[in-house]
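Researcher: Last one for today. Full complex below.
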Amino acid sequence: QVWGSAAGPNCIVLSPLTIPGGTRQSPINIQWRDSVYDPFLKPLKISYDPTTCLHIWNNGYSFLVEFDDSADRSIIVGGPLENQYRLKQFHFHWGAINEWGSEHTVDSKFYPAELHLVHWNAVVYPTFEEAVMEGNGLAVIGVFLKLGAHHEGLQTLVDALPAVKHKDTVIEFDVFDPSCLIPSCPDYWTYAGSLTTPPLTESVTWIIKKKPIEVDENQLEAFRMLLFTSDGEEEKRMVDNFRPLQPLMNRTVRSSFQ
Ligand SMILES: NS(=O)(=O)c1ccc(-n2ccn(-c3ccc(F)cc3F)c2=O)cc1
Ligand SMILES: [Zn+2]
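Model: Here's the assembly. Have a good evening.
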C-alpha cells in the first residue's frame, strides 16, 4: 500500500491519510441503490486533441501520460461541470492480482484497475497549482478496467512501459487520443471528492463511468512490471497503488442514468 494502511478486499479501513477534518475524501464505495438519479445532469462532452500528448512519466506512484494544457485543446464540458476543464494527465491504479486494484468500488466490488483522467478549471483559475487547492478546481473521470478482451488502444501505451520501468524515468509520447480508453456508454456517477494521493486536497468533482473497459491479462501484467523504485535501488514492483476507501460522510452520489 502506498497510501495509508493495507486494505485487502474484505477489510475496509479508514486510512490514517484521511486528512484531519476532511469531509469529502476519495475514493469511496459507490452503493448503486443509494445513488440518486439527477435528470438535470447533462451528457459529458469530451474533445481531446491527440497531438497535445507530451510524454509518459513514472513518478514512483503510477505512470502518468501528461498533456500540453497551455490552451483549450483537450477539454471536457457538461456533465455535472459548470465550466470546461482542461486535460492535464491520466494515470492508473492497479493491484498485484485481479481481485483488487481499483480505488473506487461499486457495491463493494473491486475492479483489477482504474483509469483517472485529470482535468483542471482553467476558466476560473490561472494555473493547475491553484486549481488543485479549490473546491471546483479539478474534474477527474474514473474508468474501471476489467479482465477481458485485448484493448487495442491501450496496447500502444503498454508497448512504451518498459522504457519507464524505474521511478523518475520519462519517455516522449507525442500522439495519443485518451478517448479510446473511455467507454461509449454515456452513463456515470458523480460526487464531490478529493485527490487520492497527497496533497489529498478536496478539489475534485469525480465522474465515474458506469461501464468498464476490457483489457487482457498481458496488459494488466505489463502494469505490474513497473517499479516504485529507481534504477540501482532494490526492486519493488509497482502494484497495489490504490488508497483505501474513505467514509462517505454527508455526501450523495448522483447518477446520470435511471
Ligand atoms: N488519483 S487522483 O485523485 O486522480 C490524483 C491524485 C494526486 C494528484 N496530484 C498529486 C500531486 N499533484 C500535483 C501536481 C502538480 C502540481 F503543481 C500540484 C499538484 F498537486 C497532483 O495533481 C493528481 C491526481
Ligand atoms: Zn488516480
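The pocket of KRY (ligand 1) is lined by residues 116, 118, 128-129, 132, 140, 195-197, 199 (CB under 6 Å). The first strand starts at residue 29 and ends at 30.
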